[in-house]
Amino acid sequence: MNKKSFWKRGAVLALCPLALASCFNDVDLSNIDMEMALPASLALPAGKARLELKDLLERIDTDSLIAVDGDGGLEVALTDSMTYEMTPIALSEKVDDFDVTYAFSEYISEHGMPGDVDLPLSPGQTISEFVTYDFYDMGLNEDEREMIREARVSELRFSVQVSHTLADLPPSDLQIKVEFDPAKVCYTDGRTGIVADSITGVSGELVFRNLYLTPFEGEDDRTGGLPLKMTVTIHTGDGLTIHTSDQLTSYFSPEDIDWTVAYGTFSAVKMEQRIGTITDFDLSFLDGFKLHDPQLNFGVRTNAGIPVLFDIAYVKAYREDEAGNPVAGSEVFASFNGSQSTTLDIDNVAEMPGLWGGENWFRFDRESAQTNALFATDPLPNALEFAYSARADERADGSLSFLTPDAAVHVVREAVVPLWFDESAEGSEIVIRDTITGLELDSLMPEGIVLEQALLALNIENGLPVGFELALDAFLDADGRTVDVPMERSYKLDMPDVDTDGRIPQGAAAQPVPWEINVDQQAYDALRQVNSIVYSIHLRQEAGKRVRFEQSNYFGLQVGVYVKGEVYSSIMGE
Questions:
Q1: Residue 361 pLDDT more than 80?
Q2: 171 phi, psi to nearest 5 deg
Q3: Predicted TM-score (pTM) above 0.85
Q4: Cα-atom radius of gyration of the chain, to the nearest Å?
Q5: Sign of CA dihedral 190, 195, 201, 205
Q6: Under 8 Å CB-to-CB from 535, ≥6 apart: which residues?
Q7: Among the residues of 474-520, which ranges form H helices?
Q8: How many C-beta neighbours within 10 Å does residue 21 have?
Q9: Nearest alpha-carbon partner for 529 in 570, 488, 477, 493
Q10: What is the DSSP letter of 108?
Q11: How far is it, in rounded angstroms, from Cα 38 to Cα 10?
């Protein structure tokens, strides 16, 4: 067995380990250049990692909140939405029972029979001359902020009970008919004629469908109701006598007013105040960084044809503990020009019943609401709370608004936290860990050599807008066990040049920075067992430097080995 220089032959052994292992008998050793040397600037590649910053951050963002904005910047986006009913005009609740009475003395008087008399009616007659005109008060427009001018009703239903003092009148010989004033009520389905319905007997139900009602006004132009005509029809049968004191009263009880749309002014309509929250998000990986311009966005739309005033009572950020309880003293409120509250005008409303208006978006940032103060606590908040309500407004041009029974306001609540940090966050740090696997260093580092020189060579690319420290945290063998490798473990890189917003200039390429770690014999022998390297990147912000994380930011790391030494081998047969 002879002693040979590894430097001359190690390149062949290192570059072709698999060929020697699988095709040993086919190798013509006489063709090997015995003077071939490995240039000192070249390291044999063992593994490489290039990771986008978004992917790196998602490894520590346990809620997977990292997103990319339209400008390529990274952000944490938190959003939810709810639909809230507005308090509508409750027609069925407003309408009270009412009654209409007919005094038969009027009929007797009309037939020239003065005084307290009995009037016999001949058998076999049908008499429909008992008519009463009345006003159906629907209880509308009592609030000065509400004026209903027109309405469409799919169904108007009354239960009817009749009492009378007519002796010997069978129920089947009695009919009650109700007609609405055709100037106020008509059909919407194309039918013509007077809107009317009737019952036979002393009880029943009146049903009117597909009605267009207008204009809901009485003598004082505010009373919400409709004129109606009630006709009593009597079949005299075997004969009937009526007395001057006889009366017939019909009692009407509204069962349902199924209205579909009302037109008018509705400034009394409102949505009760609601409190909404966004919770269960974790920004702790950003603790210590001062967020430059977080945003609070509201998207509001309505299916009512009414301009809406959207009142924000407050927006606050706070910290919840593990049990979900607010941490005392962690509350911070947004400020709208010095106030916790503000009002938004929602004028992009529904154009016609059955449609929704477009979303009205409102953005609040550090300039309009001092939102940076919401995220200036340490630790950062993990909950947001909003209190808001909505109320109807009048149209500026005085035209009629419309309202439907399902009138609602849909609210999108959104918190957008760009990963954009102020200059004041000196010393802030984010730690990201990753692993390069499948190194198989033993294939590049033959056993039994006497080292002259060995390096673990790393090429580092810093495509991030911050300086960082790279640390080799652990070396693992193929079974995941820790290998003790005594060697240098950390390296610092400076912050690259960034623009005034803290971005890496477009088109700027990160220049690889070499980190060569000297390896002694003990470390060399240990490295031969290494299959994976666990490393961490400690991102640090420098004082006076703004930082903006973007999708294009990345970190690159290439690992290789450089070995020079002597090995005892009989491979050359010497």
A1: yes
A2: -55, -35
A3: no
A4: 44
A5: positive
A6: 433, 434, 435, 436, 470, 471, 472, 473, 557
A7: none
A8: 9
A9: 477
A10: H
A11: 8
